[in-house]
Amino acid sequence: MGARTLFDKVWTAHEVVPETADTPAVLYVDLHLIHEVTSPQAFSVLKSLDLRVRRPDRTLATMDHSTPTVSDQVFGKIPIKVDAAAKQVRQLESNAAEFGVELFDMRDARRGIVHVISPELGCTQPGMTIVCGDSHTSTHGAFGALAFGIGTTEVGHVFATQCLLQRKPKTFAVNVEGELRPGVTAKDLILHIIGRIGVSGGTGHVLEYRGSTIRALSMDERMTICNMSIEAGARAGMVAPDETTFEYLKGKPRAPQGAEWNAAVARWRALCSDPDARFDASVDIDASTLEPMITYGTNPGMVMPLGGAIPEITGNAVYDKALGYMGFHGGEVMLGKPVDVVFIGSCTNGRLADLTAAAGILKGRKVAAGVKLLIVPGSQQVKRAAEELGLAQIFKDAGADWRESGCSMCLGMNGDTVGAGQYSVSTSNRNFEGRQGVGARTLLVSPLTAAATAVRGRIADPREFS
Amino acid sequence: MEPLERVKSKTVVIASTNIDTDQIIPARFLTTTTKDGLGRQLFADWRYLADGAPNPDFILNRPEAAGCRVLVAGRNFGCGSSREHAPWALLDYGIRAVISTEIADIFKNNALKNGLLPITVDGATAKWLMDNPGAEVDIDLVAARVTLPNGAATAFSIEAFARHCLLHGIDELGYLRSKLDLIESYEAARRW
After folding, report:
1. In whole angstroms, how far apart are CA A373 and each of A357, A396, B97?
2. Which of A60, A85, A293, B23 would bridge with A188, disulfide CB 3.0–4.6 Å?
3. B6-189 sits in which CATH class?
4. How far is CA A389 from CA A112, A353, A405, in A?
5. Least CB-CB distance to B183: which of A40, A163, A165?
6. Percentage of chain A modeled with pLDDT above 70
7. What is the ipTM of this complex?
8. What CATH number was assigned to the domain covering residues A293-465?
9. Who's near B191: CB < 8 A, 6+ residues apart?
């Protein structure tokens, strides 16, 4: 066997039937994560065909996308405000009970955003195949898993067979070298990468993030990177597991324990691309010169250094439409622009490290008058940890709105929305038109830049606070 | 699923690149638990004004778009979220094929599983289609070829098994379930 990439190794280990010219591979799924929004129609298919969930032991359900973040609604003191969301919650409860799927329901202390809870429970492990009816499933690739988003029809396929029909994607090496400067985060790095390769640069490929910069990142940071692979068009992004990965997983409730742990780590150590493995595409990134980044348009590839000016492009209708929507024009400086809302949270930046970074700036300071700062932890466990560490108190003292966990204002399904025409500086992953509310204008940034902006009330450089 | 061999229709053109699934159907409409009726919300934020009235400037609200079953769109159509509500909304509205120079991976998969044809063509063909909105095109899935009214024919690539299933109305789940014995053997042989 020739030299193989990390992706090749994980893919091959899960081929029940390899692909041929006429038929795609039958690929085995180790872990199937589900939530209330993209599962109902798949359960309906099972019911109509009188089928069961074949491997409920490999299926895990949570509620995150349309769920409220207001405590009284979460814990049932008052009804869930969005009726249709309440119906989705009830339907997942009844489907999970009927099909024997483990569910972290609204009152469960382990509930949270699906891509935050699976790693923190130790369910996400190196070498696994992981799928979910959500495009940010790429997050789990940070552990050296092959993890990607699927549609609801495919959710049904996995329910019924624990497998998917898949064509083997190509491989794409993202080589990142150099030390990130103070104030420059994993979020800035992935925004830079997306700007560099483009929002469809990774289409048809699985990205592997490699190099000294990636090796130096924590698991929370690697998850931020892999999370946004889909914003470059790649269904999956991967990082080879190493001591950082093992250290993170050790002792997690669903991670292997005792002798099984040692055997698992021995197996996981082989999960890396061979030195002479060939990739179908590659890009080299120098991380040492990066600045904090911010988006200025209506997709994550329309991104620029925070201290720079919006690029001036003539004769491009799409660029004109995007800038028209944002209320910007080419050549404008971004720093100092007033904002209405700051959102810190999401599967991109809703983990404890993100909240800790934001708290470093917010400590002893106040949110600027007229600005709403919404901070939504990625999971109930993150929430509890942030409260125990005093971060929540820092946020409340600063005047932030501190909520229960969920996807919240990242996609505005649950009523947490940004008003038409308002500017939202957000740590989430998508700045599409209307993503955070009809007419909302989203600027994607790191948690540091978000916190600095909340304090100033204007787009601000976090390095001013160091 | 009904067998599908051919889509012959006038085109409607939305030239924007990177049309994401939040534009195709905004997230606030995903609180449904069925697939029905999503066509009403297709391109909702472009199609309707703030008061809910149709936006007269949006192409789908113009008389020439009536009955069009082929959507021609800019590069990287369907990027973003994995929501299958996007092809469900397009189909419910009446669209049976999307033509672009590039179509996002998850959207393409979802489309194929629902009988919506994702057709990727070369830049010259796409430009001709963009420049000639309303052109009558003939998409032949048997030959994997799209023919323009000027007689020019362009081959398109489509995943072989998905094409086979579409042509014969085969449900992929049935095929996967026919492999259950192999799946069980795989599980038994796994040592972890």
Report:
1. 15, 10, 43
2. A293
3. alpha beta
4. 19, 12, 17
5. A163
6. 100
7. 0.96
8. 3.30.499.10
9. none
Residue A125's pLDDT is what? 98
Size of interface A-B (CB pairs under 8 A): 172
Q: Average pLDDT per run of 10 along chain B, which is 192 residues long?
A: 94 97 96 92 96 96 96 98 97 98 97 97 97 97 97 96 96 96 96 65
Sheet with A341-344, edge to edge strand ranges: A401-402, A372-375, A341-344, A423-426, A441-444
Chain A nearest-CA distance from B78, in A, is 10
Topology agreement, domain A170-241+263-288 and domain A293-465 = no
Domain A6-166 CATH class label = alpha beta
Distance from CA of B3 to the nearest CA of A (A): 18
Is B179's CB within 8 Å of A163's CB? Answer: yes
Instruction: Judge contact between A334 and A294, C-beta under 8 A.
Output: yes
The encoded tokens of residue A10 equal 């994980």
Spatial CA neighbour of A118 closest among A95, A91, A136: A136
DSSP state of B21: H
Nearest to A438 among B32, B45, B84 (CB): B45
Q: What is the mean pLDDT of chain A?
A: 97
B-interface mutation test, from A23, A27, A34, A41, most B Cβ less than 10 A away? A41
Q: Determine the residue among A199, A235, A265, A271 to mutate to test chain B binding: the one whose Cβ has the most chain B Cβ atoms within 10 Å.
A: A199
CATH superfamily, region A170-241+263-288? Aconitase, Domain 2 (3.40.1060.10)
d(CA A174, CA A281): 9
A441-444 and B6-14 as β-strands: parallel, antiparallel, unpaired?
unpaired
Give the tens place of pLDDT for each residue, A216-228: 999 999 999 999 9
